[in-house]
Structure formats: structure tokens, C-alpha cells
Write a structure and sequence with these properties.
The protein is of the alpha/beta class and 259 residues long. 44% of the residues lie in helices and 17% in strands. Bound molecules: guanosine-5'-triphosphate and magnesium ion. The site of guanosine-5'-triphosphate (GTP) has 20 residues, from strand 1, strand 2 and helix 4.
Amino acid sequence: MDEVKDQTAANAVDTGSIVVIPALNEERAIRAVAQGALLHCGKVIIVDDGSTDRTGEVIADLPLQRIRHARPMGKARALQDGFRLALESGCDGVLTMDGDGQHAAADLPRLLAAAAQYPHHIVIGARLRSRDAAPGMNRVGNQQADFWVSWACGQRIVDSQSGQRFYPRAIVELALQMPNDGFVFESEVLIEAARRGIRVVSVPIETRYADNRRASHFKPWRDVLRITRMIAWRLLSRGMMPRNYWRARTVPPIVVDTV
Ligand SMILES: Nc1nc2c(ncn2[C@@H]2O[C@H](COP(=O)(O)OP(=O)(O)OP(=O)(O)O)[C@@H](O)[C@H]2O)c(=O)[nH]1
Ligand SMILES: [Mg+2]
């Protein structure tokens, strides 16, 4: 623990941002993920969503804040509870990353650099590098989700399902009002933010799938169907948003590729 504390003090840049990491049964990866986030950001909140494995134990000695749900309440509730705690501390924005090791903490400063360049934007760590590393079903599911989310947002979004993001404070507050659960939440935040004129910037990141990974919580059929249903309802009730469709198909995405 001391080593992590020392390195944290030496390397972390105090940016006014906090990293929120949702974790459901992530005993294999969560310690390394948390240590990386501490090194690169310094302030970390882990939301253990009723894990039944050793997720809580393996991070017990790390200098971070933790929330523990007695039973699993879904990724959306986990993120929202982390956001509430982050807002209480007066942060300027929140970085999110998954607890399974698919996101590198070393990319967090790249997201923050993009956020500084594009104030009042959401920044997404988009899996644009080594895309073939993703299982075929996930790729197809993600492409489907990108199509619908882009249409609803009126902007082409290149990895709408990525959990590595930067949200400015106003969007963190907005995210607390989202009613939908699970993986739908992250799509809904983008769409509701877009309605308020907030755009998305993408920072290319690697696509990572470890050989010894646990089973995915993301079920392409189930989750893309839920996302599509949520979006179809919005499109239908808003006259199919033809202008949004046109913009999503014709205007290129904003991609910031800093080293
Ligand atoms: N708190 C909480 N976190 C969840 C839940 N489902 C998924 N997560 C977390 O959300 C992140 C993403 O879940 P994954 O199962 O890796 O889903 P994914 O990254 O979209 O899918 P893969 O590409 O197959 O890994 C991980 O940090 C999970 O621990 C949940 O029900 N509750
Ligand atoms: Mg994952």
C-alpha cells in the first residue's frame, strides 16, 4: 500500500477529476485497474455492486473511496452512486473506466487533454485501435448501437458503448436523472446530453480482450435490443429526427489523437 501511496503522490496530476469504476465480480483485474487509476488520477471511487467474489478484499488496502451494494443493482446504479459521491467532493468532472482491465489508466491523461481542448464536451475512449481483437458478436452489437445512438445524438459516435469516458460536472449531474438501468444508461446519457447541445469527442484507445477474461456482462442481443428500444421510442416520439440522421451520416466524428 505504501508503494502505491508514494507513487500516487509523485505521479498524479490533480485535475479536479475523480475516477469512478463500477465493479461486479472483478477479483482478477480490479486491483491492477485501481492502482493504475490512482497513479494517473489520484482520486478513485470503486463501486462494488454486490460482488460475490473477492473484489472487495483485493482492494481493501488501497487508498481509495469505496461504495458497496449489498446486492447487485446494475451498472447504471453503480455509476450513479459513484457520481453522487464524486459530486459531493466538488470535482470538475468524472472519469469512468471498467473494472475488468479493458481500459488502460495510462489513457486517462489523454482523455483529460481532450477535455481541456474541448470544454463542455463528453470525451469517449473509443476502441478504434486493434478492433479485430473484439469477439465478432460484440463488434456487430457495438456497430448497431453506434448507428442508433449516432442518429439520436445527431452526431456520428464511433464507440457509443465504451465505458471509458470523461463527463464534465454538468453531465455528471444530468446522468443522475437517467431512469434506465444497465448498459442502456451510457447511451441515454449521450442522447440527453446531445439534446442540450453537448457534443462527443473521441480519443482512440486499444481494444483489449484478455485470454483469461471472465464472461461478459454485456449480452449483445439483449443489450442492443434494449438500447434500440429506448432510442426507437425517442425517434418515434420526435418525428424520426431526419436532420439528426443526416448529420450523423454526413458530419465526421471529432477524434483527438494525442499521444
Ligand atoms: N456495478 C455493476 N457493474 C457492472 C454490471 N455489469 C457490468 N458491470 C461493470 O461494467 C463494466 C463492463 O462490463 P463488461 O461485462 O466488461 O461489459 P463490456 O465491457 O461492455 O463487454 P465486453 O466487451 O464483453 O467486456 C465492468 O467494469 C463490469 O464490472 C452490473 O450489473 N453492476
Ligand atoms: Mg468489459
